[in-house]
Write a structure and sequence with these properties.
Length: 364
């Protein structure tokens, strides 16, 4: 029988469930967020953007198709703990190499199941994202007061690569520098499939480091944490924009590009995490369903100079994309490379390639 384990929120709420995955060494404290995605839990587990967070899956049954390393978005799990309603310990899938419980044990990540994830999600939606404590012993009400002090810090440096490396096609092709703030591997796969020669550089790279690689285009990756914390990256990115190299930003990359050009960001009440977020193209009026994972957004009332909104979120009218007029750059808050989907906006990668091939002469 699984051991009892407790999740406490900073408002004092306590959820009792059963333990799976690794045995926590002491209390685990992190930001508690939820995702509405019905599939892709392996991608969620290995997405570096979840660094410093406990993730609640709103879909009730998790683990039913097991674990396959082909679905990994990075080499390891970056979230702090995993929260599910029903844990499947007998997965069925021809690609399955392991079950969820065993995988989390290998990754030293604790989990809690058999709790009311619907009630937990409703609480977060009502009160906003809160910090939580996962503990094998039932915490006291007084213990909740200290949870508000926790902050996710140094997130990008914790998930970025430590040194540059190349991914080539073996054929001559445009060179894209992928600035790694916690890049999902599917970004690399999409660029590679379009014939790009990729050099991945760490978050500590400078403008001079990137220019020395003579890039035809620059990709700004997704990543975790508060975008404003990355002061040095923002300053180096500001310098890069003046060289008129085509730039494409995704998620955190979208936010950093906005900040580098004088825009502002804000923390959302509970963020957008899931695979069913509708966004509208402001030019054509067409609506796309997108995958998203972020807790911050570019403020519509504090846009960067020379930028126009290209996509809007139809649920809350937040900024989902920008096109820049003063240099060949564009960015989106959602994930056009999403695995396991949807794939509605994959065309944005081709847009980036076309921009590179045209020498960055146009942004549309």
């Amino acid at each position: 029988m699984s051991e009892n384990i407790y999740l406490q929120l900073e408002d004092g709420s306590i959820f009792q469930g059963k333990h799976f995955g690794a045995v926590p060494k002491g209390d685990v404290i992190a930001e508690v967020v939820f995702t509405t995605a019905m599939t892709g839990y392996v991608e969620t587990l290995t997405d570096p953007s979840y660094y410093g967070q406990m993730v609640v899956q709103t879909f009730p049954l998790i683990g039913n198709y097991g674990i396959s390393s082909a679905d990994f978005e990075s080499k390891k799990v970056h979230l702090s703990a995993y929260i599910v309603r029903n844990l499947c310990d007998s997965p069925s899938n021809f690609r399955c190499k392991s079950d969820l419980d065993s995988f989390l044990k290998e990754q030293n990540i604790p989990g809690i199941y058999d709790i009311d994830t619907r009630a937990l999600t409703k609480k977060i939606r009502t009160k906003g994202v809160m910090n939580g404590r996962l503990s094998l012993s039932c915490p006291s009400q007084e213990a909740a007061t200290s949870l508000s002090e926790f902050q996710v810090t140094n997130a990008v440096s914790a998930v970025s690569c430590n040194e540059s490396y190349e991914i080539t096609t073996g054929l001559p092709g445009p060179r894209v520098v992928l600035w790694d703030f916690g890049a999902k591997e599917n970004i690399q796969r999409k660029l590679h499939s379009l014939g790009m020669c990729i050099t991945v550089v760490p978050s500590t790279a400078t403008c001079e480091d990137i220019l020395a690689l003579n890039p035809d285009g620059i990709m700004l990756s997704n990543g975790p944490g508060n975008p404003k914390e990355n002061v040095q990256i923002i300053e180096e990115l500001r310098k890069l924009c003046s060289f008129h190299i085509p730039i494409f930003g995704i998620c955190l990359g979208h936010q950093l590009l906005a900040l580098a050009n004088g825009g502002d960001t804000e923390k959302l009440k509970y963020g957008h995490r899931g695979a069913n977020q509708p966004v509208q193209d402001t030019e054509t009026g067409k609506v796309y369903i997108t995958s998203q994972n972020h807790g911050y957004a570019v403020r519509c009332d504090a846009l960067p100079a020379g930028a126009e909104i290209s996509f809007l979120n139809l649920n809350d009218n937040t900024c989902e994309g920008l096109i820049y007029k003063d240099f060949p750059g564009f960015s989106v808050q959602f994930h056009p490379e999403a695995c396991g989907g949807p794939h509605d906006t994959e065309f944005l990668f081709q847009k980036f390639v076309n921009l590179i091939k045209k020498g960055g002469s146009v942004c549309h």
